[in-house]
Amino acid sequence: MTKKKLTMEQKRLDRDIWIIALVTLGAFFCYAAAGDWLVNFVTDSNISIIPRLLLNAGVQFGIAGLGITVVCLLRKEKFSQFGLTKRNMGKSITGSVICFIPSICYIFVSGQFTGYHPFSILVTNDVIASGIPLSILGMALIVVVWGFFEGFNYVVICDKINRRYPAANQWLDYGAITCAIFCVLFHPLSISFWGIIEIVTTFIAIYGMLIVKKKTGNAWGCVFVFCFIWNAI
């Protein structure tokens, strides 16, 4: 049987996907290897907030952001090409929030809700307490890295996969499935009752928001839910 020859576009997309995968996994394995040392350094209040925040942001950006940034620079693609537009913004945000409702319900019912804290990371309180202008610059960095890029990262990856492996069924989205699975695997897993509920609701949230992006053509919903739900509850 003759092997189907790939087009130049398919080859380009394969390279893009591999670049994103290798950069992301490389950053993740570095984070995993650093382990306790990284956490201890970032949370040590005796050290200046600047190196702690920059290290934390660097690791986070490496995992969720660096790969797509490298690819977009290489291909001279603008972020706006991936749905950062005003058109259908309201529908995108509303639809994405709805997809996160099961995850929100899980957090409340399982007793994990401790308050609403947007952009709450290991050093947020120290950044806020650092005083102006450092606190403003620090929070801006947190919003960009943990809010914008963490949500937008999935949008670009999903788009690349779907263009390379298009599905005939409009509800069967290989890019969204892949992103949802990786989101589940990149976070601590527990094979308990509540752990399984968390896996299912997380999958629904990520898959759902990417389907909403696909239907509306607007990516701001994905960014919004990561800013004001994923990193806030």
Describe it for me?
The chain has 233 residues and is mainly alpha-helical. It is 70% helix and 0% strand. It is built from ten helices and no strands. Helix 2 runs parallel beside helix 7 (134-164). The radius of gyration is 19 Å and the shape is globular. It starts with 7 loop residues before the first helix and ends with a helix. The model has no long low-confidence stretch (mean pLDDT 92).
Describe this protein with a few key phrases.
233 residues; mainly alpha; globular
Mean pLDDT metric = 92
Please give the number of β-strands: 0
Q: Mind telling me the C-alpha Rg?
A: 19 Å
User: What's the number of helices?
Assistant: 10
Q: What pattern of helices and strands is seen along the backbone?
A: HHHHHHHHHH
Structural class: mainly alpha
**Proportion of helical residues:** 55-70%
| C-alpha termini separation | 53 Å
Low-confidence runs: none
Strand content: under 5%
Shape: globular
Q: Largest sheet at a glance?
A: none
Q: How would you concisely characterize the structure shown here?
A:
The protein is mainly alpha-helical.
Question: What is the fold's blueprint, element by element?
Answer:
Layout: H1 8-42, H2 49-63, H3 66-75, H4 89-99, H5 101-109, H6 124-128, H7 134-164, H8 174-185, H9 193-216, H10 220-230
Helix pairs in contact: 1-2, 1-3, 1-7, 2-7, 4-9, 4-10, 5-9, 7-8, 7-10, 8-9
